[in-house]
Amino acid sequence: MKETIKITYLSDKIDKLTYIEGKSDWIDLRSAEDVTLKKGDFHLINLGVSMCLPDGYEMLIAPRSSTFKNFGIIQTNSVGVVDESYGKTSSKDVLMMPVYAVRDTQIRVNDRVCQFRIIKHQPMIDFVEVEANDEGEARGGFGSTGVN
């Protein structure tokens, strides 16, 4: 079943949203402005779109895998989370990408800088306290795998 999302394009200089064809169910977002940053600068990149998410859904926004290599910027909040209340009151609530430049860089209108996906809210969870979770082999903790 497909969901419907209302979108307003606030720039006629960016490509319309499409899936990353044949590669992913993430969708690229593009800069709607030319941006020149010096090393150490912070900027909110205008992404040129406003959306009205359906009830029960949220949007995750993350940099593309090539964003750091191509532009030398990092998304300052690592992953953006947009809940369904965003965009319901005004089509002028433009999506922005907060970035920090680690080197001098230039981003041009229509450059793909980040990507998003829409997901359902996680279900309500009951946490049950136990003495130990010994159901499998220890993996070394989060962030410790994939070294070899």
Give an account of the 3D structure:
It is globular, with a radius of gyration of 19 Å. Strands 2-11-6-8 form a 4-stranded antiparallel beta sheet. A 3-stranded antiparallel beta sheet has the order 4-9-7. The chain has a two-stranded antiparallel ribbon with strand order 1-5. It has 1 helix and 11 strands. It is mainly beta and 148 residues long. The chain has one helix spanning 67-71, and strands at 6-9, 27-30, 35-37, 42-46, 49-52, 57-63, 73-75, 80-82, 96-101, 105-107, 112-120. The longest helix is centred in the middle third of the chain and has 5 residues, at 67-71. The chain has one domain: Deoxyuridine 5'-Triphosphate Nucleotidohydrolase, Chain A. The model has no long low-confidence stretch (mean pLDDT 88).
Strands, helices and their partners?
Blueprint: E1 6-9, E2 27-30, E3 35-37, E4 42-46, E5 49-52, E6 57-63, H1 67-71, E7 73-75, E8 80-82, E9 96-101, E10 105-107, E11 112-120
Antiparallel strand pairs: 1-5, 2-11, 3-10, 4-9, 6-8, 6-11, 7-9
- In CATH, what is the class? Mainly Beta
Provide the helix percentage. Answer: under 10%
- Overall 3D form: globular
Rg over CA atoms, rounded to whole Å, is: 19 Å
Number of strands: 11
Mean pLDDT: 88
- How many strands, what sense, and barrel or not for the largest sheet? 4 strands, antiparallel
CATH topology, what is it called? Answer: Deoxyuridine 5'-Triphosphate Nucleotidohydrolase, Chain A
